[in-house]
Amino acid sequence: QVQLVESGGGLVQAGGSLRLSCAASGRTFTAYPLAWFRQAPGKEREFVATLNWSGRRTYYADSVKGRFTISRDNAKNTVYLQMNSLKPEDTAVYYCAARGKQRYRDYAPSDSGEYDYWGQGTQVTVSS
Asked: Do residues 47 and 114 touch, judged by C-beta distance below 8 A?
């Protein structure tokens, strides 16, 4: 059974930092892109960041560019999201996602429909 388990969420003041982790089990995702999405109350799920299988290609939503950094440790089958200079509008449930098709393709999609596996989410709350 494939599982993606996020951790690292919590309550932080504006301007602070958090580091999210997402550990995969039941399947290895070293050959596939990984991503983070988020969903705020009353809003649709939105793309945050993604990276290709090697980690050399990264893409970010304009709203987080320059503040968030996505990375991966393929030896640990884990993806991370370092979030700095957090703003109240970053408050959301953050989800990690993994694609399970087409190994070693040199791309990282921002469309949620391209991902096959999802974590349960971790809450991030930024107070003003």
From this structure: no
Please give the span between the terminal C-alpha atoms of the chain, in angstroms, as a whole number: 40
DSSP string across the chain: --EEEEE--EEEETT--EEEEEEEESS--TTS-EEEEEE-TTS--EEEEEE-TTS--EEE-TTTTTTEEEEEETTTTEEEEEE-S--GGG-EEEEEEE--SSTT-S-----GGG--EE---EEEEEE-
Q: How far, rounded to the nearest angstrom, does the alpha carbon of residue 63 sit from its chain's CA centroid? A: 14
Residues 8, 11, 13, 14: is their CA dihedral positive or negative?
A: positive
Q: Per-block average pLDDT, block size 10, for the chain (128 residues)?
A: 97 98 96 97 97 96 98 97 98 97 90 97 97
What φ, ψ does residue 112 adopt, rounded to 5°?
-60, -30
